[in-house]
Design goal:
The protein is mainly alpha-helical and 555 residues long. It has a domain at 447-552: 3-Layer(aba) Sandwich (D-Maltodextrin-Binding Protein, domain 2), CATH 3.40.190. The chain is built from 27 helices and five strands. The longest helix has 28 residues, at 84-111. The N and C termini lie far apart (79 Å).
């Protein structure tokens, strides 16, 4: 191997990694709201590393809702950066670079270096991977994608030539991805199935089936300590506790009823002291029981989720519709031989984890797992489009009908091969930052939550607890958090006193769209019910709904 070849092999991933790093570093520097599940992971990691137990302050039991992968990542990076949000930003940056590199190396094995460069550019610059995870409210996406697709990369190496080491590495990385997000188990199933099919196509067939079996054994060995801990906490052996919980709390969201979802998720359990989402009463919820209770209703959910998947996937945030043309070219411009058909089948199986959310409910951040593989196809298609463009220009412009085709003598037209990729890369570079304005889910995170948190911060003392539907308010106030239950005002106040909350922050959107029983507390804050004292009203931007913050009067 010559030094020139070594340099040419190292240079593309090096430049792609540098581009991904710079782009994500810039995007992460913008002010954003820490909302959704992200504060949960932060608080869990902080409590865990401080020796206070792996649970949120208001649950008092080991947290089996959130796997410990991202809490560990955030807590470890917090030790280095000194700030939990900065730790999330660096996780986004570093795992984002990792994702670009693993996509490059996977695409290079399937399609070659040029297509790998194009796919890497798309992953480095596209909104779905370069920006949106900052605003989806978990920050688990970059490490989940990076780890799971690293597992896919090693599974593909084994797919090409069965080797026990590749199988073992695939199992380890898929297990690490599981610790970040449990749906990585679907990646395991997909890889096990395609490797099993490949094993049956090669003699000695039966003996080859030991390789997918080894994949499952390694995966289960790595995640068993967590499964055992969940069993200790819940009394149930389950690969993912959240499957049943999702059915128990998310039917309304799947049907498009946010008020029903709010009640199913944040309503009080039978004790009146815990919201349903964090209640031990739904720890052993059975997905099958919910399906069998009303199969017709579940069929409607599947149909609605399928429509939502296509509507949300082919938008500007994930996989814009105009990428369907290069994707089709990447798949179908050239005839497939047997090996190409096997490769495409392998890549198609990696789509199963993203598609599996049709069974539950569909949101951008869930189905975004489809994007990396779609970008590999689109990147390959851009090169096919460039190749077509070069051939066409050559054919139209040549004077000698017997002149060699550009594939043999490209001359000064080589740049045309890269023109479609370069134009799309520039377009993404200009367009992607603008998507931040539309990145938050309506009603889930609003700029006023950040302002309310900042306004409340001077009143917060160590150990103070803020009750709110939106954890962003408590996080940005530097306080502990307890969720506001979807209940009557009297029950909410009794719940707040039980959890020793000092402040209650009520969002106007929450009161007027989800919990009308709270509307008087927003519309007439000067006359609160007994037990509350108005602290402040934080107005939303451009006349938007305010956040009203009360102080609870202790009896």
């Amino acid at each position: 191997m010559t030094d020139t070849f070594r340099r040419s092999s190292i240079l593309p991933p090096l430049l792609l990694g540098l581009l991904a790093f710079v782009v994500r570093y810039v995007y992460a520097g913008a002010e954003r709201i820490v909302w959704g599940d992200e504060p949960f992971y932060m608080w869990l990691g902080r409590n865990w590393f401080r020796g206070q137990g792996y649970h949120l302050a208001f649950t008092n039991h080991w947290d089996y809702h959130h796997t410990p992968g991202y809490p560990f990542i955030n807590a470890a990076l917090t030790l280095l950066t000194g700030d939990m949000k900065r730790a999330s930003d660096w996780s986004f940056i570093l795992f984002g670079v990792w994702l670009v590199l693993v996509i490059y190396f996977l695409a290079r094995r399937v399609y070659g270096t040029k297509s790998a460069i194009a796919a890497g550019l798309l992953i480095a610059l596209a909104p779905a991977t370069a920006l949106m995870p900052l605003y989806w409210g978990t920050l688990t996406e970059p490490p989940y994608w990076a780890l799971s697709l690293t597992g896919v990369f090693f599974a593909y190496r084994a797919f090409q030539k069965f080797r026990a080491l590749d199988i073992a590495l695939a199992g380890v990385f898929l297990a690490l991805a599981y610790y970040v997000r449990p749906e990585a188990v679907v990646f395991l199933g997909a890889m096990g199935l395609i490797l099993g099919l490949r094993a049956l196509s090669r003699p000695p067939r039966i003996r080859n089936l030991g390789y997918p079996l080894l994949l499952g054994i390694v995966f289960l060995a790595v995640i068993f300590p967590y499964l055992y801990r969940v069993h200790e906490a819940t009394g149930v052996w389950t690969i993912s506790q959240k499957v049943g919980a999702n059915f128990a709390t998310a039917e309304g969201l799947a049907l498009g009823s946010f008020r029903q979802f709010d009640i199913e998720t944040w309503g009080l359990d039978s004790t009146g002291q815990q919201v349903r989402f964090f209640s031990e009463e739904i720890a052993a919820a059975s997905a099958l029981d919910y399906i069998l209770a009303n199969p017709v209703a579940y069929a409607r959910i599947l149909y609605g989720n399928t429509l939502k998947l296509f509507a949300q996937l082919f938008n500007i945030h994930l996989f814009p519709w105009y990428l369907l043309l290069p994707l089709a070219l990447g798949l179908f411009r050239r005839a497939w031989d047997r090996e190409r058909a096997w490769n495409e089948l392998f890549l198609a199986f990696t789509l199963l984890p993203g598609l599996s959310f049709i069974l539950f409910f569909v949101q951008e951040r869930y189905i975004a797992a489809l994007v990396p593989i779609l970008m590999i196809w689109a990147g390959h298609g851009l090169l096919e489009l460039g190749d077509w463009l070069q051939d066409t220009v050559w054919t139209i412009s040549r004077k000698d009908a017997k002149a060699p085709r550009p594939g043999k003598n490209r001359g000064n037209l080589t740049w045309l091969v890269w023109l479609p990729t370069a134009l799309l890369a520039v377009f993404f570079l200009v367009m992607t930052p603008r998507q931040a304005d539309t990145a938050y889910l309506p009603g889930s995170a609003r700029p006023v939550h950040l302002e309310a948190g900042k306004a409340l911060a001077p009143y917060v003392e160590p150990g103070d607890i803020v009750m709110s539907r939106y954890p962003a308010i408590a996080y940005h106030a530097g306080a502990a958090w307890v969720p506001t239950p979807a209940a009557s005002v009297d029950k909410a106040l009794a719940y707040a006193r039980h959890h020793r909350a000092k402040f209650w922050a009520i969002d106007g959107y929450e009161a007027h769209n989800l919990r009308p029983q709270f509307a008087p507390l927003v519309d007439d804050p000067e006359n609160p019910p007994p037990g509350l004292k108005l602290l402040m009203v934080v107005q939303g931007d451009a006349g938007g709904e305010p956040v009203v913050i009360y102080e609870l009067i202790r009896k």
